[in-house]
Design brief:
Helix content: over 70%
Number of strands: 0
Structural class: mainly alpha
Strand content: under 5%
Number of helices: 2
């Protein structure tokens, strides 16, 4: 978002009268939607990563539980 606001403030200076206002508005709109889409994807990938971490922890807990069962069964012999 910082990049977007910086571009918004600099864009009239960059065009310097050679761009029309609609073209500038379209470029800003495209940039805004691209940043919004990447922000949404960041949350989606973060969500997938957290789900993956939970499944990994569950698998690790299952492995520890099975190992503990084996040790207990060996001690009871």
């Amino acid at each position: 978002m910082i990049f977007f606001s910086a571009l918004s403030s600099l864009s009239p200076q960059i065009c310097a009268g050679s761009c029309d206002y609609k073209m500038l508005q379209r470029a800003q709109s495209f940039l805004h939607s691209s940043l919004y889409f990447s922000f949404q994807n960041t949350h989606f990938f973060s969500f997938l990563l957290s789900i993956s971490s939970v499944f990994s922890l569950l698998l690790e807990a299952q492995t520890v539980f099975e190992s503990t069962e084996r040790v207990i069964s060996l001690h009871s012999l």
